Structure formats: C-alpha cells, structure tokens
Amino acid sequence: MTALPRSSDGEPLRDDDVLGAAERVFATAIRDFIAELCLLDGGILIGWVKGERHGNIADLVASSAEPFFKEATIAYADGADIRFDWGRSLTVVLDMEFVTKPVTVFFKLILDGVYVGVAIQRILADQSPSQFNLDGFASALADARLRPAAA
Length: 151
Prior knowledge:
This protein is an alpha+beta fold. The chain has one domain (15-143). 35% of the residues lie in helices and 26% in strands. The protein contains five helices and four strands, in the order ααααββββα. It has helices at residues 15-29, 31-37, 42-50, 54-65, 134-143, and strands spanning 74-83, 91-100, 103-112, 116-125. The chain has a four-stranded antiparallel beta sheet with strand order 1-2-3-4. A hairpin with a 2-residue loop joins strand 2 (91-100) and strand 3 (103-112). The longest helix has 15 residues, at 15-29. The protein starts with 14 loop residues before the first helix and ends in an 8-residue tail after the last helix. Residues 1-13 have low confidence and may be disordered.
C-alpha cells in the first residue's frame, strides 16, 4: 500500500479529510445493501429497536446483505437508537460492522426520514494508519462482494 491519500495540489489529506473520503467510498460500496435494507417498513424497524429485538434486526441485516456480500461481511452490532427531535424527522441509527480479510469497518448506519448515511467510527486495516490507501480500501470492499456492484 502507498502513503496517505493526497489532495489535488499534492498535499497529504488531513485525518478528517481521509475519513470523509473513506465514508464516501464505503457508502458507495454498500449502497445496494442499504437500498435492500430500506425496503422494510420503517414502523417495523422502529418497533424492533424500541423493543430491543436485536435478533430480528440482525436477521434483517443479514438477509439484506446476502444478495450482495459474502456471508457475515456486514453484521448488526447489537446497538440501535431512535432520535426524535422536535421539528426534525425521525432517525434510526444502527451500530454495524463490515468485516473482510484486510479491513474491518465499525460504522453507524443512519436511517432518516430525509436521507440515509454512514458514519465510520473506526477502520482497522492490515496496514499501518500512515499507510492507509483509499484505492486499497475500495479494493478490499469490492473483494467482499459476491459480484461487482452495478454502476
């Protein structure tokens, strides 16, 4: 793997820039899984979160990932929260893990009434942090798939 990603002017990206770039790469890599997961009625998911039905949520995540990723690549990490702030849409946040040979990603999947997003909490990779490479990261994500992602 090569050195830290660089900006268009050749300067190394700051840690928060690297994380933002990694989140964009990651979200793109798992977007078909997210679309499949979002087919579930939101009311059911909210009920499962409120009722602490972690097994049901884990089954939903596994079945949504099954058509796209190798077995046990994406998993629910037994943590969920519902956020309802006055004047804002209801948001469900799921703690998740993406595990493949060279990289593990701990992230939160944010399901909002207006948008869906990912927030990476931590990336564990075979290479040292100073050698983190976005191309290698994207390649590891692609290798975890059953078949290439649709363009």
